[in-house]
Amino acid sequence: MRLGRRTVGAALLWWTRAEIAGAEHVPETGGALLAGNHRSFLDHFLLGAASPRPARFLGKKELASGLGGAVNRGLGMIPVDRGRADLAALQAVVDMLRAGEVVALFPEGTRSPTGRLHRFRSGLARVAAQAAVPTVPLGLVGTAEVWPRGSAPSPRRPPPGLLAVRFGPLIGPPAPSPRARRAFTDRVRAQVAALSGQAIDESFAPIRDDPTDPPSDPPNGVSAW
Fold first, then answer.
1. 141-169, pLDDT tens digit by residue?
2. Helix, strand or coil, per DSSP, at residue 2
3. Nearest-CA neighbor of 17 among 175, 135, 158?
4. pLDDT digits over 7-44, tens only?
5. What is the chain's alpha carbon radius of gyration, rounded to the nearest angstrom?
6. Which pTM does this prediction carry?
7. N- or C-end of the chain: fewer Cβ atoms within 10 A?
8. Closest by Cα among 111, 98, 97, 103 to 77
């Protein structure tokens, strides 16, 4: 991961000219969750490069093969198996957080089909409560313009100011009660909306396999977080 961040990550930040704000909010040590909006296949690459600490994320095992898979793993991807991912992936994330690692999640569960910020699924709060770690809300800006959902990425270098990764003040873990977890989820989503500039949609983003999309989203069980 360190090699991937120094090479691929540094090259990506240079090419995209992404602005990074609020990186000081990511704790220097200890486990932490990064929770952000999700509009593009570019999101996990850009976030992995912009995070001040190496960040793990989940992806379906098909994305771990070949040259692209080497890049994915180098930027922190944890391969998970379709259909058997829920409990194993949940426990793996909790274990990594307890061991002091940073893990990035996209709580909408899939890339937004509308450009609006959809409701967050419950897995973020469950993981934060179980691992007892803080969450850093973040907003990814401009990624859908560079790599739209269902399309190939633009071959042109993005203009300055188009892309940004904005980290917000961390939020402590919720109590394990359902009410506390719901309040925590709403608080994180409100911060992500403010950081990304997206309008809020009160519906869940539909999770389905779209044949026009590249194979970017994690397995449905993981996406349902």
1. 999 999 999 899 999 999 999 999 999 99
2. helix
3. 158
4. 888 999 999 999 999 999 999 999 999 999 999 989 98
5. 16
6. 0.87
7. N
8. 103
